[in-house]
UniProtKB/TrEMBL annotation:
It comes from the Eukaryota. This is HAD phosphatase, family IIIA. It comes from Exophiala mesophila (Black yeast-like fungus). One of its GO terms (molecular function) is phosphatidylglycerophosphatase activity. The lineage of its organism: Eukaryota, Fungi, Dikarya, Ascomycota, Pezizomycotina. Gene3D superfamilies: HAD superfamily/HAD-like.
Length: 226
């Protein structure tokens, strides 16, 4: 979803970019979802001075350009296989509601196409899709995500949640707002059979340049969850 169609998200992103730009950096970076390490916790930074790695019990997964090509619900077999490995991982196999798809298309509104996509994903993957509160799309839907995991007995600790997605301004930022961990899919969604085809849009590519400048040019790192 273009950032300009989500003005509250744009305002929040600009505020962070101006005053706390490191908050737009992810805690870990992978090329695509297919490279997500399992378990996830050991791949994240230590969260205290004793070097302790975070305990992860819940996963928030973006759809567009992370799980599927943008604005579709078309599932490639390699991603279905990867999701099964994630579901079988001890971090997430303890509760069938421990993995939640949060999209700014599927389930994001009552529009028939958004609800149809959400139901298709739930049916094909056996994973819940968050029905977002109107006006609270990513990165503003953190309260709804936290409430979902608490309601279903997954966790009530934001530091036990990791958000995986392709956008700094939505996926990484919602993790920051919740006090959770973030994993950035730098290349978005790629077809393993045609890996050179890039589905990223203008803003996604600009975010990639921003991330390289912040890390390589300025030596910044992502702050630990609040």
């Amino acid at each position: 979803m273009p950032l300009f169609s989500n003005l509250p998200a744009l305002r929040l992103t600009l505020a962070y970019a101006l005053h706390e730009p490191s908050s737009l950096l992810p805690h870990a970076t992978i090329p695509t979802l297919l490279f997500l390490p399992l378990p996830v916790g050991p791949s994240l930074p230590a969260w205290n001075r004793s070097g302790q790695k975070p305990t992860i019990r819940a996963l928030v997964l973006d759809k567009d350009n992370t799980l599927c090509p943008p604005e579709t619900a078309n599932l490639h077999q390699s991603y279905i296989d990867k999701l099964q490995k994630i579901k079988d991982s001890p971090e997430f196999s303890h509760n069938p509601k421990s993995i939640l798809i949060v999209s700014n298309t599927a389930g994001s509104s009552s529009a028939p196409e958004h609800e149809a996509e959400a139901k298709q994903l739930e049916l094909e993957l056996g994973l819940p899709v968050l029905r977002q509160t109107p006006g609270r799309k990513k990165p503003l839907c953190g309260p709804d995500i936290l409430a979902f995991f608490k309601e279903h007995g997954v966790t009530d600790n934001p530091r036990e949640i990791v958000v995986v997605g392709d956008r700094l301004a939505t996926d990484v930022l919602v993790a920051r707002e919740m006090g959770s961990w973030s994993v950035w899919c730098r290349n978005g969604w790629r077809n393993p059979e045609i890996p050179g085809r890039d589905f990223r849009g203008f803003f996604s590519k600009m975010e990639g340049r921003f991330e390289r400048l912040m890390r390589g040019g300025l030596g910044r790192t992502a702050p630990l969850p609040k």
